Recover the amino acids of this structure.
């Protein structure tokens, strides 16, 4: 049996006792749309893993929004002063 990758090699070893009684057909991931992701063995967190995350680096969390309570009274004071100085001409 030809082995294409480590994942397939693990399966090949696991099913050796059934040799001669079954036929295995490998489907590529883009063809096999109902694959169970939970049944796949977890990859180690190493630089070779495409989803590698360095545990030493500070996690970067994007700011999705700012709550109005995060601003202090000084901010609102500056906003009020800016509105007082702004003259809007409506014609």
């Amino acid at each position: 049996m030809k082995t294409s990758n480590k994942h397939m090699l693990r399966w090949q070893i696991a099913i050796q006792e059934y040799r001669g009684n079954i036929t295995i057909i490998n489907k590529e991931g883009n063809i096999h749309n109902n694959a169970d992701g939970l049944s796949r063995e977890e990859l180690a967190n190493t630089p070779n893993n495409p989803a590698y995350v360095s545990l030493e680096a500070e996690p970067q969390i994007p700011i999705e929004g700012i709550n109005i309570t995060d601003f202090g009274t000084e901010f609102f004071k500056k906003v009020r002063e800016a509105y007082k100085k702004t003259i809007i001409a409506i014609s």
Notes: Helices lie at 6-14, 73-85. The chain has a mean pLDDT of 73.
